[in-house]
Amino acid sequence: MPLDLDAILQSSATVADKIRTLHRAGYARADIARLLGKRYQHIRNVLEDDARSKRDRAPPNSSFAEEPSAFVGPPPIIDGRTERVQLDADGRLLLTPTLIEALDARPGEWVIATVSEDGEVALLSARAAMKQAQAIIRRFVPAGVSLVEELLAERRAEAERETRGE
Fold this sequence. Notes:
By secondary structure, this protein is mainly alpha-helical. The chain is 51% helix and 11% strand. The strands form 3 sheets. It has a two-stranded antiparallel sheet. A two-stranded antiparallel ribbon has the order 3-4. The N and C termini lie far apart (63 Å). Residues 62-71 have low confidence and may be disordered.
């Protein structure tokens, strides 16, 4: 264990204090659970209870009430094509079922994220990315031409030349 981690753990009296200290130090919940030998749910409960009590203590007109973490319920649809989504405590983006359906993505599949020069992020399912790539290739390959057949023909010709010793 690194020395700074030992110091963090020794300075905390209770398990909950150790969880809070490690969280403030930037450790992810799963890492805290592994380091302390506790279940992930225990770590989550401590941190979520802290966030909940912080919200409960905040004055009604405070800026804390306006933060995304205080938002309860499904994110509102801003317009027909835009939704508000939220980052969770571990920095993951939580997509709504509507967005997941629009992506045509399934659990465990890869999603391609592209960041433009002005900072806009676009998400694309692997299937949509493949369709885009195929459309680009189609612009350069004449109709009725099979790249697979051309490749096979080249490989057969090359094998034939090797057989003849050329």
